[in-house]
């Protein structure tokens, strides 16, 4: 059995009370399972009353702080655990696998998500001159990472949540609270990941721009040379750095975006598989079905039926 050091024990104890208050506030603001918007467009609250299967999802750039229960996210062969002691940061849009692993109706999984806007981080760096975290060359180049929650970060998050009950203070004080939250992340051991994406003309920022261009043009045929020119990189450098950040090539990334969009169209708009496939750029329904099954684990019609049955049950 591993034992915590005295300093770790003190730090863990200092997190308990804020986490309990956060859990209570999120539970009161989330009457049912799902993702709940708040008065702050950047902030969403999540509740889940039971463990979930490990399923593909598109993770947007955001900070995820769990205050009760736990979840894992998978990017390639890397597994990220986030729970009340660890938070997750995704610095660019990534197709990943996600699974809630600890949740019950009596003690549901509770999480808050704060969207990351690179301009916001860049402004913070400009104003503070923050050079937090290890050097950009240290550790993994991937665009997702988990780090330990600190009492200072949790305190800033709690103050943001309290503001939801003070709507007259929200417009003035919420930007200050969010600014402090991101500042605390930048001060963390892995803050260089977030800093690099916001720094003008850095390699991670170029990859983030390539990701955004692929998101905007995912229905168009991929022209890798044009994409490389748009982000001022050679084709070989783009391939290498794109895969280091996302674990996939630009073509694989585009394919996953298309499949996720087709899934959304079938779920929310009721399109048949062939119509959804055509809408996202597939000319061959059989190729679409094969690639859909490879990503989601079942052919389109069967997988959509499973989701609807689970939601109805």
Automatic annotation (TrEMBL):
The chain positions of domain HTH araC/xylS-type read 208-306
Going by the UniProt record, its keywords in alphabetical order are: Transcription, Transcription regulation
Q: Pfam families recorded for this chain?
A: AraC_N, HTH_18
Q: What name does the UniProt record give this protein? A: AraC family transcriptional regulator
Which superkingdom is the protein from? Answer: Bacteria
Please give the Gene Ontology molecular function terms for this protein: DNA-binding transcription factor activity; sequence-specific DNA binding
The cross-references to SMART domains, in alphabetical order and at most eight, read: HTH_ARAC
């Amino acid at each position: 059995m591993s034992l915590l050091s005295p300093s770790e024990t003190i730090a863990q104890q200092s997190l308990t009370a804020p986490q309990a208050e956060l859990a209570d506030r999120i539970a009161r603001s989330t009457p049912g399972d799902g993702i709940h918007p708040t008065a702050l467009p950047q902030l969403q609250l999540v509740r889940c009353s039971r463990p979930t299967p490990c399923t593909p999802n598109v993770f947007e750039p955001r900070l995820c702080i769990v205050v009760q229960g736990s979840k894992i996210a998978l990017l390639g062969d890397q597994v990220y655990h986030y729970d009340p002691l660890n938070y997750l940061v995704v610095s660019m849009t990534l197709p990943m696998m996600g699974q809630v692993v600890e949740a019950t109706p009596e003690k549901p999984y509770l999480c808050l998500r704060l969207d990351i806007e690179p301009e916001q981080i860049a402004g913070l760096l400009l104003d503070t001159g923050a050079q937090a975290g290890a050097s950009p060359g240290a550790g993994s180049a991937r665009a997702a990472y988990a780090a330990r929650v600190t009492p200072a970060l949790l305190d800033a998050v709690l103050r943001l949540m309290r503001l939801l009950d003070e709507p007259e203070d929200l417009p003035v004080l919420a930007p200050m609270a969010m600014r402090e939250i991101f500042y605390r992340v930048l001060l963390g051991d892995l803050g260089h990941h977030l800093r690099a994406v916001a720094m003008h003309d850095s390699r991670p920022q170029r990859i983030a721009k390539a990701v955004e261009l692929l998101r905007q043009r995912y229905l168009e045929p991929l022209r890798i040379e044009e994409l490389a020119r748009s982000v001022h990189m050679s084709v070989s450098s783009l391939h290498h750095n794109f895969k280091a950040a996302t674990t996939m090539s630009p073509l694989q990334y585009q394919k996953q975006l298309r499949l996720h969009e087709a899934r959304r169209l079938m779920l929310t708009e009721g399109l048949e598989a062939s119509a959804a496939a055509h809408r996202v750029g597939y000319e061959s329904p059989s190729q679409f079905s094969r690639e859909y099954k490879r990503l989601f684990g079942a052919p389109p019609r069967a997988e959509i039926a499973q989701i609807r049955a689970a939601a109805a049950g």
